[in-house]
Structures are given as C-alpha cells and as structure tokens.
Amino acid sequence: MNQKCALVLDDHQLFGESFAVLLEKYTEIKTVYTFQEISELFRFLGQHSREKFFIFLDYYLKDANGLSVLIDIRRLNKLCKIIFLTSSTSWPVIYNIENHNPDGIISKASGLDILLECILSIQKDQQYICPTFRELKAVNLKSQPVSFTARELEILNYFVEGYTIAETAEKTFLSRHTIVAHRRNMMSKANCTSISQLLTYTSQWKLI
C-alpha cells in the first residue's frame, strides 16, 4: 500500500490545519486535505471513490459521532485507511472505537514518533493502537463497558441535544417505532430504567 494523500476531519480548524502541516513536513504523505464539515468530506470521497487515502478522523464532532462517520466513509471508499484521533481518555469511548475496527487509534497528545509508528504499521496492514490506549486497555481488562453501535451513538447524540423521538426519527430517516426500539435497547445495555439515567451514563463516560 502506498498512500501519499491524507484527509483530516476535525471541526477545530486550528488543530486540523496544524496536524496537516505536521503530516506534510515529517511523513511520506505529500498532500493533505482538511475538512471541518462531514458533508464536505463525503462529497470529496464520492468524487474519489477509487483512490487510496489515510483518513484521520476526530471522535467528537460537532453534529455527529465519529463512529457513524466511519461507517459512511467505508461505504463511500473501501480503500481508505481510517485512523481515529481523540483527546478522550474514557475507557468506554476507546472500547467502542476499537469494536468498530478502525485501522488505527491515536491520542491527540501523542508525539511525532507515535504518528510515524502508526503510519508504518498501517502500511504493513497492521492495526495500530497507541501506547496510551494500550495501557488503558490493560488496566481495564476485567472491565467490559457497554458496547453501543454507531447507529445507537448517533441516536444518543440527538437525545443529548434535546431532540424528541419524532425529531430524531426525521433526522435519521428512521421510523418512530425504530427509535423507541433503539432507546429501549440502549437502556437495557446500560442497565438504565429511564432516558434521564441513560443520558447521565452517556455524560459520565463522555460517550458523546
């Protein structure tokens, strides 16, 4: 694999542009495109569906969760290598990311050596998890947090924003019945008896 182009999706412009400069200056990646809006990234991928890219994806995005974006990226371009960049140190967050099998997971606090190591591993078709998150996983081996699907996290995001069931159904192009079923399933997974408890759980573990 010989990817020479990277895409960065991060809704913080300063971080995205600074990270792009880092990639172009210190790695073999020659061209980096930065995006703040998910729709812009999807439009670009739709126009370049047969090209290989490294995609560096933030977990916390303005209007969505990074995991739902990951699924759409894979639908638009199956050749991409997706690396999550996150400032989170929450074990349930890292657990959920890893369960979706990205090509890499890096802490935003990582140094250049970790970034280079990640790119090299992925070029060898090996998944890479940075030392910070490997240590977090080792410490929490006996603690298996709740695993939510990307769709469930997307719906949770709307609930956190205060959307009603009807509004969430409209946003996600699902029926109200399906939204209610997802809510019931999430509450069961998190052992919650009310939506307020589920939102508290979400906030406590910084899932959104």
Automatic annotation (TrEMBL):
Stretches that traverse the bilayer: none
Residue ranges of every copy of the HTH luxR-type domain listed in the record: 141-206
Alphabetized CDD domains for the sequence: LuxR_C_like (cd06170)
InterPro entries xrefs: CheY-like_superfamily, Sig_transdc_resp-reg_C-effctor, Sig_transdc_resp-reg_receiver, Tscrpt_reg_LuxR_C, WH-like_DNA-bd_sf
The UniProt record lists the keyword Membrane: no
Chain positions found as 4-aspartylphosphate: 58
GO function terms (MF aspect): DNA binding
Record-level GO BP terms: phosphorelay signal transduction system; regulation of DNA-templated transcription
Keyword terms: DNA-binding, Phosphoprotein, Transcription, Transcription regulation
Any Pfam family: Response_reg
Keyword Phosphoprotein set for record: yes
Protein name as catalogued: DNA-binding NarL/FixJ family response regulator
Domain Response regulatory: 5-123
